[in-house]
Amino acid sequence: MSLSKPQRSAFVDGLRAGAPHLLVIAPFGILFGVVATETGLPLAQVMGFTVFIVAGAAQFTALQLLNDGAPLLIIIATALAVNLRMAMYSAGLVPHFGSLPLRTRAVAAYLCIDQSFAASAYQYEQHPEMTVREKAAFFFGVALCLVPVWYGSTLAGALAGQGIPDSFALDFALPITFIALIAPALRTRPHVAAAVSAIVLSLLLRGLPYNTGLLVAGIAAMMVGAETERRLARAEKAS
Q1: Confidence at residue 184, expressed as pLDDT on a 0 to 100 scale
Q2: What is the dihedral of CA 31, 32, 33, 35, to 10 degrees?
Q3: Are residues 40 and 132 in the same domain?
């Protein structure tokens, strides 16, 4: 399907918005490939993780739990909990993509990663005049800039295996990625309350087995954020 000139322009804008994230996507993917190989997974399974899940944080979590010998139910539940944010991302995109054909929305759902959602949400907020198809073009521009690199870097890491020295410290990519995504979004008190709660509870509960403290912290943080927003709305209505 050919794109109109505004759609092509939006797609290119998406590519540009996604490009800076390559600085962390590439080492992140390499790191996952290396770690997965060291865990003992064959190349096909490493790439299956990457292609079918497309969720680095959940993939690392599952790998760590596999290494720890956690029960399968715990691994699945924890990985799903880590990826609960994707459900919120999808809900956030519904007002923008709701009128698109089902096949387009299905592809967008697969390509909805932290970076494609964050960049798109910011773009839509700054440019509310964009049409639905321009918004989709921008989203796909961001995603197609990043997802193929995620595949390729994971493959490179898996092939390199233990040949990458520890001194490269590629594990910096994971925390930096989420700091870069989350920090600009902390613009309201509910957001800050949820983030602070998640940090504090994660530290307090770090001793729980199989990293289940993260599950508890994540759920509690969402409750804190929702309750803070509810109280602020009630106070604003009463004033």
Answers
A1: 59
A2: 80
A3: yes
Q: Write the DSSP string, 83-152.
A: THHHHHHHHHHHHHHTTS-HHHHHHHHHT--HHHHHHHHHHHHH-TT--HHHHHHHHHHHHHHHHHHHHH
| 229: containing domain | 186-239
Q: What is the mean pLDDT of each run of 10 residues along the chain (239 residues)?
A: 85 96 87 81 89 82 77 81 81 91 94 92 93 96 96 92 60 58 69 88 86 80 87 83
Q: Which two tokens stand for residue 72?
A: 């399968």
pTM of the model: 0.72
Say if residues 114 and 174 touch (Cβ distance below 8 Å): no
Q: Are residues 31 and 135 in the same domain?
A: yes
3-state secondary structure 200-239: HHHHHCCCCHHHHHHHHHHHHHHHHHHHHHHHHHHHHHHC
Is 128 in the same domain as 225? no
